[in-house]
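Fill-in record for DUF6247 family protein.
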Amino acid sequence: MTTSAAGQPLIPQPPATVAALRQAVRQITPAALPAFTRELDQAADQSRQGSDLAPLQRFVAQWAAYVYIQRQPDLAADLHDWEERAAAGDAAQVREAASEIGRILDRAHAAVGLNRR
């Protein structure tokens, strides 16, 4: 991952297009590129089969939020910490972690201006 000045995003938030998101993923989290491509293919197939753009819209919203989080190292680290707590904690810790993960995801979706479905 690229480094940045303390507290600054690694890159500006890209437009919510497949091409711009692919470039951002390539730049900040290249290891996620295979998942991006696989999920894009699945969303495109679902859209073609159902003659519906909703799967592609969900894909773009999900990856725009992912990029929003990953371009901010502190926020990405917080999310990772909460995910680890959710995986290893007792019931109360899992509930707290799930709440915090939801808060982070809601913030990311609101910031990119795409509805979370």
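KEY FINDING: The chain is about 70% helix and 0% strand.
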